[in-house]
Each structure stands twice: as C-alpha cells, then as structure tokens.
Amino acid sequence: MERYNTVGSSPYNRESWDKVTGVTQYIDDLRFKGMLYAALLFSPHAHAKIVSIDASQALALEGVHSVIHCFNTPDLLYNSAIRFYSDTNPADMPCTERVFGQEVLFVGDRVAAVAADSEALAREAVKHIKVGYELLPSVLTLEDAVVSNAAQASPFGVDGSNLCGGWVAYGSDGEEAVLERVRRSPLQETSTFRTSRVHHGYMEPVAHVALFSPSRTLTVWTSSQSVFSFRDVLSQILGLPQNAVRVIKTVSGGAFGGKLEVMHEPVVALLSMQTMRPVKIRLNRKEVFSSTRTRHEARITLASGYTPEGKLIAQHVYSLLNTGAYAGSGPNTVGAQSGKTFVQYGADAMFYRGGCFYTNSAIAGAMRGYGCPQIMVSREVHMEGIARKLGIDSVQFRLNNLLAPDSTNCMGKPTHQALGIECLQEGAKIFCWDQRRAQALVKSTAKVRYGIGVGTAVHGSGWYPVYQDMTSVTMMMNNDGSLQILTGIHDLGTGAKTVLAQIASEALHIPLDCIEVVEADTAVTPLDLGAQASRSTYIGGNCVLECSLIIKEQLLREAANIIGVAAQDLHLGTSEFIEQVSGKKVSFSTIIDSAQKGLHGKQRQIAAVHSYASHTSVYSYSAVFAEISISVESGTVKVEEILCVHNSGTIINPALCEGQVHGGVQMGLGYALSEEMELDAQRGNITNPTFKNYHMFRAHQMPKITVKFVQGAEPSGPYGAKGIGECATDGVAGAVVNAISHALGGVTIDHIPVNASYVQKLLSQFVP
Amino acid sequence: MSMQEKKTVTFVLNGIEKNLETERSWTLLHVLREVYDLTGTKYGCGTNDCGACKVLLDGMAINSCSFPIHKVEGKSVLTIEGVTLHPRLSLIQDSFVEAHAIQCGFCTPGMVISAAGLLLHTKNPTEQEIREALKGNLCRCTGYVHIVEAVQLASEKIQEYDNGKV
C-alpha cells in the first residue's frame, strides 16, 4: 500500500474546539438586530380544503407584524427536493408543493404563519387565526393507498390513483421473462417485508432565518444540505433572480438527509419580505416530528428462483413506498433503490418494479440510505429464509451469491472493486461466526434466548448513474503560502471539511493548520449538488485533489522560473519546492509573491476554479454481524455485540470514518428494534412526537461495536477513497433481524421494528 | 400567581452572582440563552428527553429546558462556557476532542456537562457507570462509542490533575 503523509491519519474534526466549548453558532444561536420570530399554524386535519382564513384577531395583538397564508401568498407549485435547476421531469421530480396550499394534505401541513416580536407571542397569535375547513376523504396508510379503488390522497396521483411520478421498472430481461425464470427454477421463495416510517432524529431542531433588504436581495441562513438547490427553489417561488438570493449553510447540528429538502425557508422569506425585518423560525420537537421529513415506509416483495445447491437463478423485486402527502424526492428514492437490486447479489436474471404512493401523512424524503435500508433489510431477511430452507450456512449462502469483483452483473455492468465477499469472509473470521452461531443456541435457556445474525449491504459513492454527478471548488493561495478552499460540499458534522483539507494537504504538502475550508454559501462558494449520496469524500475529494494538482502546477512553473531550472528538477517539500541536485529551496510564499509581482510572466494570483464530474458508479460494501439476546418473559431484545466490516477503499481519516460507522449502527439498531412514527388510525396525526416515546438508542442500550475496514484503493477515488456515510447504516437492520430469527428457531419475521410486543408474538409461535 | 408576575432570583452563574428580575414562566434555559446570551446550552426537545440543555446545578447535571428559573434561587449554575474556564473540568473538553467524540456537536455541551456531573462525584467510573450517566443525553451521530471513550480519558486526566501531575 502507498504511504501518505496526511491521508490515513486521524487529525481531529476541525470544528471540534468551537463545538466542545459551546462557541459554535448554530442557526438557533444567531442573533440579528430587529429580529422577528415566526410560528406556524399546522393543519389538524389529514385532508381538507381551506374555505376561509380570518387572521384579524391575531393581527390585532400588539407585537404581531404579519400573518401569511394561502390567500395572500404566491400560488406556485414547486418540488422541494430538486438537485439540478432543470430537474423538472414530472416522473422524477413532480411539482406538488406550495408554500401555502388551499388544500391541506396531512396533519402537520402548513396553514398559516405569523411574525411577531417574540416566539411566545408568535405561538400565541397562531391560536387566534380562525380557519374554515371543508373535510375531504383521507387515505392514511400505504395499504389503503395502493388498492385500485382508493380515494386520492393527493390531486397529483397518476391517472386518478395514488401513484406518485410513475413506476420504475426495468431489469436484465422483461418483467414477465424474469418472473418466468423464477417460476421455472428448481426451487422458489417469495416473501414480503414491511419497514416503518422513521425520523432522522437530528439533535438540532429545524430552524431558518431570512432577511430581505430594501435593495431586494434575500439572505437565508439555514442548516441545509444543499444551498444551491434551496436558492433555486426560493428564487422560483419569490420571483427573484438567483443573484439576489443568497443561501448560507450554518453549522449543521445533524441532518442525515432530513435537511436536504426545502422546508419552511420560503415561509420566513415571505415574512421578511412583508416586514422588511430579519425573521427566524425554530420548530419545537413535536413540530419537527410532524412537519419535516421522514424515511419512506416500505412494503417489499421478493421472489427468487434458486438451485438446490444454493445459487440464485432469478430474482424479482416489487417495492411499494409511502411518500406521504407530497412527492418531494419520492420517485427519486425509488430510482435510487432500484439500482441496488443489481449490484449486491448476482443472478442470471433480475427485475425491479417499484413505485411510491401518496398518503395523507407526514412527508417522506431523503434519509441516510435513500431507499437502500428498506431493500437491504427486506432482501437480507429473504436470503436468510432461503438459506434456512436449504440448510446452508448463512455466510456460505451469501458467499455463493454475492457479486465478485472485476466481473459483470446481469445488467452487463462492471462490478469494479466489489469487495462484499472479502468483507463477509473477514467478518466471519473475526466474529468466529461458526463457533458463535452454534454456541448461541447452546447457551440459550428457558429465560434467555441468544441468536447470531449476518447482513450485508452495498451503497454508491455519488449520484451517478441517477445524475451525472459534479462539483466545483475554488482554491486560492494566500500570501504566506497558506491555502483557502471554497467548496460547495456541506459538512454535516461528519468531518467532510477535515477530509478535504487532508486531501489538499497530501497533494500540496501544506500543513493542515494552514488550510482553511469555507463551505456552502451561494454567494461565496462554487456550485455543488449537496451533502447526499455518500459523495462528499469521493466527489468532493476528487475535485479538491484535481484542483490541488492544478495549483501545484502553477506553483511549480513559477518556482522553476525563480530558480532557473527545469520543472522536473524540483520536488515538493513542506510548503516549498526543492531542487534535487543543489538542495536550493523556494518557499510557496516567495513563489506567490513572484507571481503577484509578475517577475516571471503575467501578474497573477495563484488560484484555480475546477469542476469535477463523475460518470462512474463505484460502490462501498459492508458485512454486519450481530449477537442478540431475548428475554423470554418481557420480549425485550438486547443487542450484545455488533461487528461491522466495511470496504470504502482507502480510509482518509480512520477515526472520522469509524465515527460514521458507529453512528450508522445506532441508527440501524433503532430502525431494526425500536423506532417507529406511529400514526393515529382515525385522525392521521403522529402519536409519539417526542424523544420519550420515539425510541432512539441511548448510551446504556448500545452494544459493544467493533469496526474493521477491508482496504483496497479504488482506482477512481481520491487516494483510493470511496463513500461511507450511508453504507454505515444500510446493513445493520438485516443482521439484527436475522439474529432474532436465529434465536427463535428460524421464526419468520415480516416487519420492523421488532419491538417487545412483536417479539412477544414471535415467542408465542416459538417452540424451543 | 399570574403568568406575568415578576420575581427577583439570586443565583451564581459561572462563578458570578446574579440578581435577575424574572417572569414566572421562564425556564433556566430561556434565561441562559435569551437573557445572558449563553448559547452553548442548546434547545433540543423542550421535554426533558434529550439532554442538549444540560447544565450543572450545584454540581448535578440537570435539564435546563424544563427547569423553572425561580427554583434556581440560591443555587450555583455552571454552563459549558463555565466549564471552559474551569481548569479541572475543562480537561473533559480536551478529552472529547482527543477521542474524536464530536461530530455535529449539537449534543456535545450537554454530554460534557453530564460527564462533569459524573466525574465530580465518581473518581474512576466503570464503562457501565459512564453509560448510565449519559443515558439522558441523546446523540444521533456517534453511537456514543467515542463519547464513552472520551469520558474514560477525562477521568484519567482529572485524576492526574488531582495528583499534581498536570
């Protein structure tokens, strides 16, 4: 393996000191002179038409400055999830949202907003707004939305149905041909698995600040994951040219996809335009749960044909997702999910059919994994079922079927560095799979059952082939030889800025503390598509690396002229070039000064703007191993241990990368066992919108977690790196669910979360 | 007592005595953030469930978001800003950085406070004791792994400090 200076070491996340001392200003900590506070009135009905709004009593309160609603704001349709400006394909990004619509589509939909002198007053004023509703039939659940004679949850459903956008359907052969291959296989397995609606549970509540100035420019501060698309949406809604809309990402207090789509930014922007004052909104936690974004609930049916020796022949995936009241990124999530069908396990023939459906419930959107956790857990449980029927060991069965590196899949696409097999083999060895799998049943008693399970996962690095991914970076040398990097890449606390600085440091031999990374501000940084698709290291890193090499070339040419030697006689020292023979040195600051004075050519700044485009799909891989125990009396599942083996190419910063996996495990465990947004079956409201009743794993509930990386440089990655963010959570639930099934003698589990009441049910079917 | 009734509360904030005219509805979190501009203490949930708003009250970690200001009368409050100035407890902050325990950082001040509450009373906590002490603090980024390691490291640093080695 190549030896690097900075790559592969673990400098601290560069935001650490400000954060640990409480000095970091998150959006809720920003203070503006004359700032007003906004509060929202949310729909209490799952589906209704607004016939009247009387805001006079609210406006009469002293200190209330503005009330806005559907009768006094622009009636313009948009999609909150766009990436590219031209992203308007109605099958992929249908425009279904308004700042305030006359038809409210879920409990938590926006009805009106108030700007007032204080938050308390704004919240008080909201209660004085009188709204007349005409109730419409509602469709609350996915089950109800997909039936052929269902009422329409949204007027945008395709052909009078609740289908959003359209079906995504493709495969190695025609659908009927693939189903026929399944039917004609020696053995077949069909299973349906349901996954629940969960929330990102970021610790920082959603907040935005907007300031509209008399010169008709708007500035919006928001804890966003994609400032440029936010700018595009805001400029569209408000009728302002994009130069007049500046969106600034504030330090992220956690996002996980939940802050990728425009939420209430247009509301504060409109209130600021009305009042000509800075306006801020900060949702309370209950509002965060009910009126932001969630993970798509799913029902996935897999049908596989296979040989008695345990080799897949054909597989058909049929996936139904609940997109909630608005399209957002629903169809796009289906698209992203579809791709995962073909890049994990190999079979001669595979087909994916999926669609998302409108319901009158909380909006689904991007969340870490983006359609992937749903298909991964469903398929890992399905595969486990086949292995069990055949009596083949779970690891061996997967080894028989995972795609091999440097081969082609059934779609004719190259598998590149598909190291899923290596992750699985390495993990089985470290976890002592064979012994522990046997021991678990031996050590189980009448009171406590033990189980061991495995799950694998795969995730892309960057958008391609869904989009032609790109990002840009500006790099400027300062006069003293230090470096500014302006990037549209958004650091969500993952350490993306630290990783980009490491890559630049490696390429230019500039010490890390002499590199500044400025992120995501539409008026300052070049274009980027946002923090999503596990793309920050791979796409952002490649862009920074290529730009660093351009800067290096500029420095080198000037250095060669200064010393009067050929460029190839110079090599890079720390912030300097050294002539190999004489040992003569010229520092970066001398080179920069020379360029600025034009001593050896045109006067110029050492700087570059560079775009990097990715038209390659590379994947990261993981194998997760879990040991769990079940209290037979209470049905409580305790996760005893988790081992995650990942292949993400070269690991640029091992400590930060491990941290991603640790967090991914916490999210995956909640997904598997405890997290679920519960909906009132009649009214359609979320009944558990608090951290007390929405159960995220806490410190004392976490198992021992071991993380291992199977390295192996990805040729197309920066210093060989690939993504980690989403792969970190994709495989966890499958391993845990399979471990529970193992503990209970192979009982069939058909949905998550496997909470205590579900375990009680499973226990009643279990005969030791 | 009406909502608007004012009451003067006397307490010590980060080592300095304060006399503040308060409204009955105010929470300690409101006073810290809106009156004293100490924004290191965070609003995370407002319902006592996440720990982002933790401060030390007479050396015990409490949630300030649902703590009425009038109950602070005669007591001493230490916030994350106060921890930074505290030679012994600021070792916890060093440990959080060194152990890579910080990602988005929104839970971090509350985590540091809970760690301080533990380490003020327990010299050499076990991993289980640390996890119990942190169970009121939610974190969505780290899986708590590096945070627990940071508290272990802090415990060592504080013992060295107490033994005069630092």
Averaged pLDDT of chain A: 97
Classified by CATH, the class of the domain at 416-459 and 618-768 in chain A is Alpha Beta
Radius of gyration of chain A: 27 Å
Record field, number of beta strands of chain B:
5
The total of helices of chain A stands at 20
Reported by name, the CATH topology of the largest domain in chain B is DNA polymerase, domain 1
Cross-sheet strand order for the largest sheet of chain A: 3-5-1-12-9-10-11
Shape of chain A: globular
What's the overall average pLDDT of chain B, rounded?
96
Q: Count of DSSP E strands of chain A?
A: 26
Tell me, briefly, the overall form of chain B. globular
Biggest sheet strand order of chain B reads 2-1-5-3-4
Number of structural units classed as domains of chain B? 2
Oligomer: heterodimer
**Based on helices, strands and strand pairing, what is the structural class of chain B?**
alpha+beta
Beta-strand fraction estimate of chain B? 15-25%
Description:
The complex is a heterodimer of chains A (768) and B (166). Chain A is an alpha+beta fold. Among the domains of chain A are: 32-136 and 202-255 and 259-291, Alpha-Beta Complex (Aldehyde Oxidoreductase, domain 3), CATH 3.90.1170; 416-459 and 618-768, 2-Layer Sandwich (Aldehyde Oxidoreductase, domain 4), CATH 3.30.365.10; 465-614, 2-Layer Sandwich (Aldehyde Oxidoreductase, domain 4). In chain A, 29% of the residues lie in helices and 24% in strands. Chain A has a 7-stranded mixed β-sheet. A 5-stranded mixed β-sheet of chain A has the order 7-15-14-13-8, with helices on both faces. A 4-stranded mixed β-sheet of chain A has the order 16-24-25-26, with helices on both faces. With 166 residues, chain B is an alpha+beta fold. In chain B, 37% of the residues lie in helices and 16% in strands. Chain B has 6 helices and 5 strands, in the order ββαβββααααα. The longest helix of chain B is centred in the C-terminal third of the chain and has 18 residues, at 145-162. The mean pLDDT of chain B is 96. At the A-B interface, helix 1 and helix 17 of A face helix 2, helix 3, helix 4, helix 5 and helix 6 of B.
